[in-house]
Amino acid sequence: MNLNHLNILGLDFKVEYVNGNDNKLNNELCGKINWQEQEIYLDNSFNKQLILITLLHEIIHALDHGLHFEFRENDIDRLAIGLFQVLKENKLLVESIL
Predict the structure, then answer these.
(1) How many beta carbons lie within 10 A of that of residue 35, not counting itself?
(2) HEC states along 48-69?
(3) Which of 20-29, 47-56, 59-68 has the highest mean pLDDT?
(4) Are 21 and 44 in contact (CB under 8 A)?
(5) I need a surface site. Which of 34, 36, 73, 78 has the fewest CB within 10 A?
(6) Whole-structure pTM value
(7) Tens digits of per-residue pLDDT, 76-87?
(8) Residues 57-84 as b or e (16 or more Cβ within 10 Å = b)
(9) CA gap 16, 13 in Å, rounded
(10) Beta carbons within 8 Å of 32's beta carbon, 6+ residues apart
């Protein structure tokens, strides 16, 4: 993936692709967001579609934190998968992201 920065709620987040064993993931499955440092870590050992679903998942975490939705983790999982499907099926995914 080619996306290295992302603006979420007016904040610039650095997107970093790391090996799944990297300490930055802290044993998370696919990704992690650090709100204070404005960084998103994604495991680059997965295929592009799973990385994008993980990115959407972390974006939803940021929105949840910044807008105080109080989503549960499984709500975030379902929203990320649903958004990915809508974007993919309607050809709204930009190839430079994938």
Answers:
(1) 14
(2) HHHHHHHHHHHHHHHHHHHHCC
(3) 59-68
(4) no
(5) 36
(6) 0.89
(7) 999 999 999 999
(8) bbbbbbbbeeeeeebeeeebeebbeebb
(9) 9
(10) 24, 25, 26, 40, 41, 58
